[in-house]
Design goal:
CATH topology: Rossmann fold
Radius of gyration: 17 Å
Structural class: alpha/beta
Strand order of the largest sheet: 5-2-6-7-1-8
CATH class: Alpha Beta
Length: 193
């Protein structure tokens, strides 16, 4: 039985690196993968998944209104797909998470999702919430706070390096915008000692 996986973490833990390595492992064995990335995240360019350590690959883009079951089914009509990888999975809608579950159940293709669990205010993203509820397998990819403890939270910074506590849930950015913190330092909003 194919499974739905959710690999989650805070920012800069290497989620995209793990995704690209796993896809490479399939391809190295002669199996085809389908990579998907949220259209809203174009930091590496439209339809590109890139890691901070220099790995990258082309990916199909999705918007929240797309039917991912139909998209994957259509891709399967062109070639055998052995695994689906979704980057920035926090941007999935709840309905799309159900569609990915159907891919596992009806098309018998494993789907591996990678994304953030919570936003800068400590709230679940809709896609992450649905994945936490529906995924067959949950795995935390760990990173560390400046203090050395496991970072589970993310803080947003403004251009001056001050912590931002209000605003839109989604602001696309990387290391220049977000810092991963342990829960203690996130609660205190401490970026460094």
């Amino acid at each position: 039985m194919a499974k739905l996986y959710f690999n989650y973490s805070s920012m800069n833990a290497g989620k995209s690196t793990v995704l690209l390595q796993a896809s490479y492992n399939y391809e190295e064995r002669g199996m085809n993968t389908l990579l998907l990335i949220a259209a809203i995240d174009d930091r590496a360019g439209k339809g590109r998944i890139a890691s901070r350590i220099g790995l990258d690959a082309n990916a199909d883009i999705f918007n929240q209104s797309d039917d991912l079951f139909q998209h994957i089914k259509q891709a399967c009509s062109k070639q055998d797909i052995h695994a689906v990888f979704v980057d920035e999975a926090q941007f999935l809608s709840e309905e799309q998470v159900w569609q990915l579950a159907r891919v596992c159940d009806k098309l018998r293709i494993p789907v591996m999702c990678f994304g953030l669990r919570t936003d800068f205010q400590g709230k679940l993203f809709p896609g992450s919430s649905a994945l936490l509820a529906l995924a067959d397998n949950l795995k935390e990819i760990k990173t560390i706070c400046w203090c050395g403890r496991k970072a589970t939270m993310v803080a947003r910074m403004d251009a001056s390096g001050r912590v931002v506590e209000e605003g839109d849930q989604v602001v696309i950015g990387g290391e220049e915008t977000y810092v991963s913190l342990c829960r203690n330092h996130w609660s205190e909003r401490q970026l460094k000692a």
